[in-house]
Every structure is written in C-alpha cells, then in structure tokens.
Design brief:
This protein is α/β, with parallel strands linked by helices. The protein folds into two domains: 283 residues, 3-Layer(aba) Sandwich (Rossmann fold); 200 residues, N-(1-d-carboxylethyl)-l-norvaline Dehydrogenase, domain 2. The protein contains 21 helices and 13 strands. A hairpin with a 2-residue loop joins β4 and β5. The chain is globular.
C-alpha cells in the first residue's frame, strides 16, 4: 500500500499501530508561541503538551509555531500542508514505533520585520513564548558572558524596535504592545541547552529593551518571568532516510522526526501568566534546576563533544559509530569518570556515575543515526559552554585535565579543515574562517590556537592546560588521532 498523506482528514485512516491524537484539534485554543520549530522542539516540548492533551488537559495551551529567518518559511509551508501534524518515530534498540502529535495548530508567516509574530505574541491568549534557537543564538559576548550589544542584529533592533530582525527584538516589541494595552507580560521560556537558560533569556530580552526604551526594560524586569529549565532528548536531523522510514510505516510526512525513547524536562516553576501541568506528562518541576542541568550539560553535552571531535577526524559518520570504536569509547569512559564526574553532584534518584552509564547506553543506540557532523557543529559555542567550565573547575581543584586538553587539541586539528583520510571538512562553525586560519598556524605554534580570548579567555594563561594542549596537538599532527588516544588510554 502507498503511504497515507498526513493531515487531519487522514488521521483515522493511518495504519494500525500508529498512535494519533484522541482530542478534537478543532477545539484547541492557543496559549504558547514557540520560536524555532526544529526537530528537537517537536520531539520534546510539543510531545509533552500532546501527552497532556491526550489526557483531556491543556486544551487551551496549543502551540503557535514561529520563526524569524527566511529558511523558517520552508518548514512553515511543509507543516501547513499537513495541518501542522508531526510524526514522531521512536528509535529503541528493541524496535521502532510511530506516534502523530497534534499540539501545534498554526505557524505564523515568516516576513521581514516580524509583524505577524509580534501581533500574535501581543494577543492576550498567549501566555508563554518559548524558544529553541540553539546555544549560540542568544547574543552572548563569549569573553564576558554578558549581552553582546555590538552585534549588527542587535544594533538593528535597537534602532528599529518596531521592525526587529531577531526573535528577542520581536519579543520586546510584543511586550511593548502588551504594556501599552494594559496587559500583563508573557513568560519567556528558553528550551535550549544553556546553563541558566532562563536567566540568559532574561538578560538578552531586558538588555535589548534597554537600548531603545529603558522604561519598558524596567517593566519587563519587574513583571515578566523567565524560568530556567533543562531539556534532554537525542533527536537526529531529518533526511532522506527518515522520510523513507516514515513511508515504510505507512505515513507520507514531509517533516517526520526520529528520536530516542528517553526524555527529560526539568523546569523552574516561575510562570507569570500560568502554565500547563507538564508534570502530569512526566516533566519535573524543581527549584534546583541547576543541579540537573549541570549533570546533563557536563556529562551528556560535553560528552558529545568528546566523542564527535575524534570521530570527525577519523571519518566516523554517526555518534553510535563513534561509541562502537573502542578507542573513542575508551576516551569517553575514562574522561567522564576521571575528569568530569568529580565536578558533578547527584540529583534526586541519580548519581553522576549512574548518569554516565545512562548516557553511554544512549549514545551507543545503533538506531539513532545522529551524525558526528551535527554534534560537532558550532564548536566555538559548544566547547566554551560545555567543556571549558569543567576545565576551569579541574584546574582550580587540581583534578586531572589531560583528557580535556586532548579534546581541545583534537578540535584544533579538526578545524584545520581536513580529516585524517585527506577528505575536506566543510565549514561547520560560524567562526570557521578564523578557526581554520588559527588551526593552520597552531600546527607550528600551538599557542596560536589558544590566543583567542573570545573562546579561551584566561585558559591560555594556565600553564598546566597550555602545556598539555601543546603536547597533545604536536602528537596528533605527528602521529595521528589514534596514537593520541592510545597515549591517553595507556595504563
């Protein structure tokens, strides 16, 4: 049989075994605008809301999708053609299953100046504006970790607050309208992998508002809320293989999402205009989000960079493939236990060591075709956000940092732009041109790589790290990645 084109009209005719909405989507009311409708959002936040709706709850919290970049329009058109439904395909080592989720009911047109987005966020029924815009999307100065008021996008939004270019400028414009109309603010909810993501979102929104309207900035700071949260689910990119998998399951979906079966969402309960009861769908409300996110960011996110960097150099295409390589797997295990776990505290029900075991199993899932290239993307943000805080903690505490220095050296070698088989690594970082130039210079002078204050800050001045980094980088260039891994793993 030919696959069934996904739409409201065909939900009842989908193949047996495909779970689907049991609620009446025509009766849903909007409550959330979500900016950044990538795969992660649809497999994570939208799934939690869908699960509530399946229980007859949260019927007035449906999601309005949004984007602010021209490429977002292509996703809007794909989803609009199938009534904003998404097929989620769970990839468990024991088997594959599919579920259609329907928590999103609209997707705003993506236009210059973001007028439709501003108008919708200013409407009284919108009580939460959530974002998944990547770790590097919050206009943070890498050196100071403060707001980058010099970025061209920010300068544009400060000069043209009614026709902004960024998601944050649109939020500021909508909040200005709400204040003028006597409405309260919405909650700003970051769902990105950033430690203190709510505080960072607050910093960006309030700082941007202050550039054009200090009074508005004060009103936002006093009245809006920006809860911190920790999000976790491995969600690969969608390509031809994922489209074909959906078709084999009997569904013609232009934007299916594959994902692992593990999900976690820990949220600070700070919502100025109400919220869904996500805890009834498995989320955790906690006043100590930091402990959960520190465990996840330091063990999972940093661990991703630990294995993806040598994997890219050795032409290993997937994360599970990296874990199947005994030397990369050995690097992961030794570095996690000896260099990361000492700087992670337990959370209710889970020790850091048990979490390493969990992540080891998740990364090794052969059904999850998460590409090494995707995980290694934007290393300038991910190394500074995930690895360098652990490195600083290790230097301060006197714990081992040899593996962390090795990973930084592997990253410097990767940014030279070629793999060890001679193939070219295509640009994979917003700073790629500068990184490749630095990497070329570092082959002869390792200090040339560390002399990037926006990335390394004072780490370049720490002799224990700088000397280890230089030693590893020379070994990698002289004898290769495997030789460096052997040296690290030697008893």
């Amino acid at each position: 049989m030919s696959p069934m084109k996904l739409s409201n009209a065909t939900l009842a005719a989908l193949p047996e075994g495909v779970a689907r909405p049991t609620y009446d989507r025509a009766r849903l009311g909007a409550g959330i605008v979500h900016i950044g409708l990538g795969n992660f959002h649809r497999a994570h936040q939208a799934w939690y809301l869908h699960r509530l709706m399946q229980q007859g709850l949260a019927q007035d919290w449906a999601i309005i999708g949004a984007g602010v970049r021209p490429y977002d329009e292509a996703m809007r058109l794909r989803l609009a053609a199938q009534d904003y439904l998404t097929t989620l395909i769970a990839l468990d080592p024991a088997g594959v299953s599919a579920e259609v989720v329907g928590a999103m009911i609209d997707y705003l047109p993506v236009v210059e100046g973001n007028g439709p987005l501003i108008a919708r966020m200013a409407a009284p029924d919108i009580r939460i504006v959530a974002l998944t815009v990547t770790e590097g999307g919050y206009y943070i100065d890498p050196a100071t970790k403060g707001f980058d008021a010099t970025h061209p996008d920010i300068l544009h939004d400060a000069a043209h607050p009614e026709t902004p270019r960024t998601a944050f400028g649109a939020m500021v414009a909508a909040l200005a309208l709400r204040r003028a109309r006597g409405l309260g603010p919405f909650t700003g909810q970051s769902c990105d992998n950033l430690q203190g993501n709510g505080a960072i979102l607050r910093q960006t929104v309030v700082s941007l508002a202050r550039l054009s309207d200090p009074g508005l900035a004060d009103w936002i700071a006093a009245n809006a809320s920006f809860p911190n949260s920790m999000v976790d689910c491995i969600v690969p990119a969608t390509g031809p293989a994922e489209l074909a998998l959906a078709a084999r399951l009997g569904i013609e979906d232009a934007a299916p999402v594959t994902h692992e079966t593990f999900r976690q969402w820990v949220i600070e309960d700070d919502f100025c205009a109400g919220r869904p009861d996500w805890d009834r769908a498995g989320a955790t409300f906690s006043a100590d989000v930091h402990a959960y996110e520190a465990m996840k960011i330091r063990i999972l996110n940093a661990g991703h960079q630990v294995i993806a960097t040598p994997g890219e150099l050795m032409s290993i295409e997937t994360i599970s493939g990296c874990m199947a390589h005994p030397k990369i797997h050995g690097l992961f295990r030794k570095l996690e236990i000896e260099e990361i776990v000492p700087h992670v505290r337990a959370v209710p029900g889970r020790t850091p060591e048990a979490y390493v075991d969990l992540i080891e199993r998740r990364f090794s899932n052969p059904r999850i075709l998460d590409t090494t290239r995707r995980v290694a993307f934007d290393g300038s943000a991910r190394h500074t956000g995930f690895l360098h805080p652990i490195l600083r903690a290790g230097l301060a505490a006197g714990t081992p940092i040899e593996g962390l220095a090795l990973v930084e050296a592997l990253w410097a070698r990767m940014c030279a732009g070629t793999r060890e088989d001679g193939s070219v690594i295509l640009p994979n970082d917003p700073l790629w041109a500068d990184l490749t130039a630095r990497a070329a210079a570092a082959k002869a002078d390792p200090q040339a790589w560390l002399a990037m204050p926006q990335i390394y800050g004072d780490l370049a001045d720490q002799p224990r790290f700088a000397e280890a980094f230089a030693r590893w980088l020379r070994l990698i260039w002289d004898r290769g990645t495997e030789a460096a891994l052997d040296a690290y793993l030697a008893p």
